[in-house]
Automatic annotation (TrEMBL):
Organism domain of life: Bacteria
Species in which this protein is naturally found: Carboxylicivirga sediminis
Name this polypeptide is given: Four helix bundle protein
Gene3D superfamilies recorded: 23S rRNA-intervening sequence
Record-linked InterPro entries: 23S_rRNA-intervening_sequence (IPR012657), 23S_rRNA_IVS_sf (IPR036583)
Regions that span the bilayer: none
Length: 123
């Protein structure tokens, strides 16, 4: 299959993978009682970001790819909310929250920019 975008070369995919690693490291410090709750949800949401970017890159049209980018973006919003909840529950500090919100914001901006670019290129 001839793909227009090789996900392994995309900076948003690489940045998404780095975020996954950081979320896994962060949540390893959460209470054991959260392993099937917030920890599981945060890990799944973070993994969803690069996974949907990769899956979308294999689609035939830019419109289809764009849909997967939307899902990746939505997963980043889910993760953002879970970080706020983590702070509310005192699992992380406000400074740690700000640090991760900045990282997520970078990924969100990259996804939005790339989505606009692939849609513009398809016209």
């Amino acid at each position: 299959m001839n793909r227009k975008h090789n996900f392994k070369e995309l900076q948003i995919w690489k940045k998404g993978r780095a975020l996954v690693k950081e979320i896994y490291q962060l949540t390893s410090e959460y209470p054991q009682s959260e392993i099937y709750g917030l920890v599981s949800q945060m890990r799944r949401a973070s993994v969803s970001i690069p996974s949907n970017i990769a899956e979308g890159s294999g689609r035939k049209t830019s419109k289809e790819f764009s849909r997967f980018l939307e899902i990746a973006y939505s997963s980043s919003l889910e993760l953002e909310t879970q970080l706020y909840v983590s702070c509310d529950l005192s699992f992380i500090s406000e400074s740690k929250l700000d640090e991760y919100l900045f990282k997520i914001d970078e990924v969100q901006k990259m996804i939005s920019s790339f989505d606009s670019k692939i849609l513009a290129d398809s016209i």
